Amino acid sequence: MPNRAPTAVRHASTRTVTTVVLVTIVAIFTLRVWGITTWFWMLDDQIRDWAIALHPLRELPLVGPPTHVAGYTIGPAFYWILWLIRVVIGPWFDNLPHAGGIGQALLQSLADGLLLAAVWRRTGSVWTALAVTILVATAAYDLCLAPLVWNPVMGSTLAKMALALVVLGWFRTSALRVALTAALAWSAVQAYTGAIYVAVSVFAALVVDPLAATATPGWARARRNLALVALAVALLQVPYVAHQVLNRFSDSAMGAVTDSVGRILAGRAQPELAKSWNGYTTAVAFIQVSPWVVPAATWLLVACGAIVAVRYRHDSALLCMTLLPQLMAIAGYAFFLAGLDNYYYLSLMPPAVLTVVLGVTAVGPKRLSEVVAIAMAVGAVLIVPSRVRLAATMHRMPEYGALVRASRTMVARGQPLRGIETEFALPPTSNSEFVYRILGGQFDERSEWVGVISAHGGVTYRRVEGP
């Protein structure tokens, strides 16, 4: 594919492009964080990770969060970025945990803006770019997860940014940009292991693009890019190596994954390709199609994949960012013998949506394709309200607002407390005292008073006796 921008994009003024991108970022960000101070999802993972982000930089872990399948992610990118969010955004919100959600939502929205600009430049159609971006960013599951302090969200965000940089062709102009794109992709893996399929696809695009970008294959640039990818990964893994040295190499990172692969390679189990295919198609339907049920959605994705493979067969970088991550995920998760959750596939949604939109708009002459793109963009906007309503029913904790209001009141009053209780039931892994401690409240075991929080955020005190 030519390195120059398509004619339509070259003719669009910088002001126009900037305005469209900024308006999109602001609109999506607003949808994600509206009312977050009243419903932020503050469970065990959020409490643990935000508490870590409250520490000084020198005290941050050298690896990522623990996973539910044993082990932990293989680098500290998530904690280091979350710490930066706490430093930059936290003070505006008293360092309360919803500041982390706002920061992650902002980062995710900036990634969407980058995706919009990249697809616009690549296709020359603002309508195609808007259709892709709106469909990805306003999916109900994405909307409800984006403002959480949660490493799978961070991983999908960084993966989306790396994908957008490849689609934009940003990496083509210098070795430094190649290294930074590779580093961003690998940081996504450090944040969440499930981003590996997009990351490897980004690496593939960086290496094969020079071979197809010119009349004479650029083998020297391809070898250089491969070396830069390896260097970026190696440097980013220095903290992990340091962690292993400190633990005498006795700390396994991804035990459940390596166990599954080991069992298959040893012949004690077989790859579960059918389960992997069902897991992927179920995730696409849940994340992108809900709240509707469209049985033909899977076959639409398959058909569009075939169209994209033919239509863009000479654009290796674009194929790497659309088809390759999906195919790798289906093959890769076949070697994972545990259950497959929908959020495993968050980073695969931009490739899936890009495949569908490019496939649908590739049929017919250019003028018809633009009409179809306009229809898809308008349709994407029209279904946003239904998606927003569904998002409001998932992963929200309406008790959070009461905890914040009451904690502020108790800290302001300065009454020594032995503990805090609530008149309402919190989710099992939440904590009624976390917000109070962040705001500066302390507990005194000698106090005879316990603070009691009402459902509306009011405070009463209950006297307790004895130690």
Distinctive features:
467 residues, mainly alpha, 2 domains, disordered N terminus, globular
Portion of residues in beta strands equals: under 5%
| Dominant shape | globular
Q: Tell me how many strands there are.
A: 3
Averaged pLDDT: 93
Q: How many structural domains does the protein architecture include?
A: 2
> Quick one: biggest sheet?
3 strands, mixed
> What's the helical proportion of residues?
55-70%
What's the N-to-C terminus distance? 74 Å
Query: Major sheet: order of its strands?
Result: 1-2-3
Low-confidence stretches: 1-5
Overall structural class, as computed from helix and strand content, comes to: mainly alpha
Order of helices and strands: HHHHHHHHHHHHHHHHHHHHHEHEE
Helix count, per DSSP?
22
> Radius of gyration, Cα only, in angstroms?
24 Å
What does this structure look like?
There is one protein chain. By secondary structure, this protein is mainly α. It has two domains: 7-391, no CATH class; 400-463, no CATH class. Helices cover 63% and strands 3% of the residues. It is built from 22 helices and three strands. The longest helix has 26 residues, at 98-123. Mean pLDDT is 93; it is low at 1-5.
Give a short synopsis of this structure.
This protein is an all-alpha fold and 467 residues long.
Topology:
Blueprint (H helix, E strand, L loop, with lengths): L6 H5 L2 H20 L2 H4 L4 H10 L23 H12 L9 H26 L2 H12 L2 H6 L5 H18 L6 H17 L4 H17 L6 H18 L1 H9 L8 H11 L7 H17 L7 H15 L4 H18 L15 H13 L4 H17 L1 H8 L8 H14 L5 E4 L11 H5 L10 E5 L5 E5 L4
Parallel strand pairs: 1-2
Antiparallel strand pairs: 2-3
Helix pairs in contact: 2-6, 4-5, 6-7, 6-9, 7-18, 7-19, 9-10, 9-11, 10-11, 10-12, 11-12, 11-17, 15-17, 16-18, 17-18
